[in-house]
Amino acid sequence: MEAVSINSLSKSFNKGAIQALDAVSFSVQEGELFGLIGPDGAGKTTLFRILTTLLLPDSGEATVYGWDIRTDYQKIRREVGYMPGKFSLYQDLTVEENLSFFASVFGQKLTDNYALIQDIYEQIAPFKDRRAGKLSGGMKQKLALCCALIHRPKLLFLDEPTTGVDAVSRKEFWEMLKKLKAQGMSILVSTPYMDEANLCERIALIQNGKILSIDSPQGIIKQYPTPLYAVKAKNMISLLATLRQQEQLASCYAFGEYHHISFKSQDAQQLQQLQQTLEAAGHQEISMLAIEPSIEDCFIELMH
Amino acid sequence: MRTLIFLLKKEFKQIFRNKALLPIIFIAPIMQLIILPLAADFEIKNINISFVDHDRSSFSQQLYQKIVGSGYFKAISYGSSYQDAMQHIEKEESDIILEIPEGFERQLIRENKQDLFVAINAINGVKAGLGGSYLNQIIANYNQDIRAEWGLIKGNPQQAGLQVSSYFWFNPHMNYQVFMVPAILVLLVTMISTYMCALNIVKEKEIGTIEQINVTPIKKYQFILGKLIPFWLIGIFIFTIGLFGIGYLIYGIVPLGNLLTLYAYLSLYLIAMLGLGLLISTVSNTQQQAMSVAFFFIMIFMLMSGLFTSIDSMPNWAKAIAYCSPVTYFIDVIRMLVLKGSTFNDIKVHFAITAGFAVLLNVWALYKYKKTS
């Protein structure tokens, strides 16, 4: 059974001025860790809000575990956990009070599903009498995850769970997701960080409300059409300017300490030619190497 | 039902934990109720008066003594130049000028008639109006005394005169506090319930917790009841403290009417006002917006519900607005029940209208609430 099935879902705001979602279709398998990757404003949160029955789409169909988001919202709400991008628990209630409150609204006690959250909760347990508003960012995130899990949902929606969280906590967070997945939970997670895409089983790249590509991270990388090279020189800024003048290049953009380039045609000679051109232009310490594209390279390629 | 209990528990925890809000809910109304009625006294005392006496006779002296002796007036100056007296008015030192013309005594005896000139500083309208009428009363009184004296002298005791004696029913001493305390109490309860209810719901929107609530199986009606019930209880609690704790213990006001009727009306009224709070919360996204909208209504309620000014003396259009305000009816009801000892039969219409408000506001709010989320 598919955990989520979306068929040409559209949603616009401001009377059609902003197309948040444009005929989005994909599905998430049961027990899958599915990533929705895209920059801010791509439509990730809108999609989450529709799937969690907070928002109605303009057109298209979507089901969660076979339940229609329009008509069976009561059933969906019982079975999904949602962790919004913005921390939205009661800041004036303590960690423990928040947790027992959200357990109680699902008709459960804190202890009923304690095993599921034990690993995560133990990390914040020393602060269980502290008010949620007074927790640090990473702790808030963990508490929010606990609250989303406390009723043992079949499907977990995580909207940018790692935004604004430090690198160590991010790593820990993904470890936790893996453990949850191992217990059979389906997880739909969104993130603007391309490096996190590799941690998902399958990903959908989304931009301006449109799905650009859906595949496993490896699959998406394999789809990259041309060989990719990284170029480096002493003066990176003027190097980029020079590269942009080269007509044989299909793409060229700054990427960390290198510039990434790809050629329009697959000619073995042109790498050498480019090296000569750059030397002629007065660039020093030039180094060029063929590289494996990353998800971000794929994203940039797909955007063009 | 279980869910509702959890929601109520959570709500009360949050209310009692809010160190900034708690005094506003419980202490502020009590302090206001102690202070406001003492200040809101319509009786005007200490009206400053400047005398311009061109006559300097025993009659003008008599008039002077009578005015100052009334207790309402304080003589600021006693001179013979209108210009000097006018300066006192300009400097805001004086409120009224009484000019006694030259030959006041002579004319009065000879012609049996004399004119006095009164100039009033009308910047403070209430003070000017009341001061003027007090002064007229004293002068009329003085006039009668003089005539009576002459009547005796001239051997004509049958001086025609109409003596009016008045009695203030239900508030024999015309004590403004008796009149104001219940009405101010109504206003405070209104403010607390409307503001707090609206702000509380909008706060959940602002922080985003309402989204988190909406993805749980909590039903809308449970959420709304979870919001309304705490403030309904707090409203009744504050009203009780105000009526017995302040009204009875401090001002000695004993409600004459049936308390059950009063509380039944209060319960209904609070439902209406909480409905207004709910309605405000549906049209606002931030607490600031909610506060501004609520303030707009409270302002109108305060000034147009017969709290300070009588509705009967308003122009017709203003009367129409006043009768659209639920507060008008409660102020009327509480004055009738507490001061006059009216029965349920007397306030049947008020009950019906308030029930109408309760239904209208709540249904409207629920409709908007459904639409917006």
TrEMBL record, chain A:
GO MF annotation list: ATP binding; ATP hydrolysis activity
Pfam families in UniProt: ABC_tran
Gene3D superfamilies: P-loop containing nucleotide triphosphate hydrolases (3.40.50.300)
InterPro entries: AAA+_ATPase, ABC_transporter-like_ATP-bd, ABC_transporter-like_CS, ABC_transporter_ATP-binding, P-loop_NTPase
Key words, A-Z: ATP-binding, Nodulation, Nucleotide-binding, Transport
Lineage, top ranks: Bacteria, Pseudomonadati, Bacteroidota, Sphingobacteriia, Sphingobacteriales
Protein name: ATP-binding cassette domain-containing protein
Similarity annotation: Belongs to the ABC transporter superfamily.
From TrEMBL, chain B:
GO molecular function: ABC-type transporter activity
Listed InterPro entries: ABC-2_transporter_component, ABC2_TM, ABC2_TM_bact-type
Tree of life domain: Bacteria
Membrane topology: Multi-pass membrane protein
Entry keyword set: Cell membrane, Membrane, Transmembrane, Transmembrane helix, Transport
Domain ABC transmembrane type-2: 146-372
Membrane spanning residue stretches: 20-40, 179-202, 223-250, 262-281, 293-311, 349-367
The keyword Cell membrane is annotated on this UniProt entry: yes
A single cellular component GO annotation: plasma membrane
Subcellular location: Cell membrane
Family the UniProt entry places it in: Belongs to the ABC-2 integral membrane protein family.
Protein known as: ABC transporter permease
Species, as recorded: Sphingobacterium humi
